[in-house]
Amino acid sequence: MIQNRRELPPAADRRTTDADGHDCIDPLGVAIVTVSSSRGDSVEKTPPDPSGDAIASILVEAGHVVTARRMIPDDYVQIKTTVSDCLDRPDVDLVVTTGGTGVTVDDVTPDAVSELFDRELPGFGEAFRWLSWEEVRTRIVSTRATAGIARDVPVFVLPGSVNAVELATAEIISEEAPHLAGLATRHKVE
C-alpha cells in the first residue's frame, strides 16, 4: 500500500496561483477511501488495494501528499461517516473514493457521498465518461462516477476498476484538484 505521509504546511502557506492567475492549493493533502465488498471487511492486516494504490501513486508523483487512507465495506452509513471524517481533517484538501459506483444494490458510494455535497461538479462525470468511451464504449452508462465540493473540499467518487481510476486520476483529478481546492476555499482568504 503506497503511503506518503509527510507533514503538510497549513493550506494558507500552500495557496498559490497558476499561470492564468487562478487560485490553487499545491501540494494537496489527499484522503483515499476504498470501498469494497470483497476487501473492506477483510481479516487480512493490509489487504491488497490496487485502485487505492493507483490513486496514491499518480497523486504522489504529481507532488501531493497522501494524509489518510481507509478501506471500508459497501455500507451506506460507513461510507458517509468515513468520508465525513476525512472532510473534518485539517490535513485533507482532497478526498478520492474508489469502488461502489455501479448499478448493483450494494453500490451505494455515490448515494452516500453526494449527500455531503454542498455543490455538485457534473462536468467531472461527463468528462470521465467521455474519456472512458474508447475503452468501454457503451458500458459507460453503468458508472455513476461523480464529484462535488463538500465543506470546501473537492470530493471525487470513482469506480473500483484500476483502469478507470488511473484514467480519472491522471487525466482529470491531478490536473484540476489543486485549482478546485483553491477556488473552494477562496472565501476563507482575506
TrEMBL record:
GO cellular component: cytosol
Record key words, sorted: Molybdenum cofactor biosynthesis
Domain named MoaB/Mog: residues: 31-180
Top-level division of the source organism's lineage: Archaea
Keyword NAD (UniProt): no
The UniProt record lists the keyword Lipid metabolism: no
One Pfam family named in its UniProt record: MoCF_biosynth
Region: Disordered, residue numbers: 1-23
Alphabetical list of PROSITE patterns matching this protein: MOCF_BIOSYNTHESIS_1
GO BP terms: Mo-molybdopterin cofactor biosynthetic process
Similarity-based family: Belongs to the MoaB/Mog family.
Protein name per its UniProtKB record: Molybdenum cofactor biosynthesis protein MoaB
Organism: Halosegnis rubeus
